[in-house]
Here is the input.
Amino acid sequence: MGIIGWIVLGLIAGTIAKVLLPGRDPGGIIGTAVTGVVGAFLGGWISAKWLDHPINKSFFDGPTWIAAIGGALILLIAYRLVFGNSRDRR
Here is the structure.
């Protein structure tokens, strides 16, 4: 899978993660894509390192998508733990 494939996968995975974990997060479409791409790498690393399930490099592989969405969710939760609800206060 090429770089464009990773960006598309990251954008979709980041969007799904934000739908599953709603709230006000910064970044818009760029932040969603970055969250998804970094989440995909994080999820793949966790899957290969601790779950002993290496990720297939195919775009349509189910475990790849689950790892990407899971990694994006981890990043969103970490962001909210670090920064809290600071964007909700005005």
Observations:
- The chain has three helices and no strands.
- The longest helix spans residues 28-49.
- The chain has a mean pLDDT of 76.
- The helical segments are 3-20, 28-49, 62-83.
